[in-house]
Amino acid sequence: MKKSTTSTPHDAVFKTFLRHPETARDIMEIHLPVSLRQRCDLRTLKLEPGSFIEKNLRAYYSDVLWSLKTREGDGYLYVVIEHQSTPDAG
User: Fold this and answer.
1) What residue stretches are annotated with the Transposase (putative) YhgA-like domain (predicted)?
2) DSSP per-residue codes, 22-87
3) pLDDT-based confidence at residue 3 (cuts at 50, 70, 90)
């Protein structure tokens, strides 16, 4: 039986990298807005299932979902990857 491959290998690579706490932490420290980063304790990142259903029965999906501690309590960071193969028209 032949294994199927993804039609978006770049997305798969990024999703794989972002499942590692150290890599995710580094990327979040670089790309999260300062105001959000200051509220989050990125040392407490915990990988969660990427899909879930809320109390109102609405389904949510993310490429990678992390839980973490914040100044206000428990929180979540959704990571949704949009790999861009060509630059934006400028």
Assistant:
1) 8-89
2) HHHHHHHHHHS-HHHHTTEEEEEEEEE-SEEE-TT--EEE-SEEEEEEETTEEEEEEE-----SSP
3) low
Q: Which neighbouring-strand residues pair with 67?
A: 46, 76
The pair of three-digit structure tokens given for residue 1, joined into one six-digit string: 């039986």
CA 74 – CA 57 distance, rounded (Å) = 21
pTM of the entire predicted model: 0.69
pLDDT tens profile 49-77? 877 778 888 887 778 889 999 999 999 98
Share of the chain above pLDDT 90, in %: 41
Calculate the CA dihedral of residues 14, 19, 21, 27 and round it to 10 degrees.
Answer: 20
Cα–Cα distance for residue pair 51/71, rounded to 1 Å: 25
Pair of tokens at residue 40? 């989050």
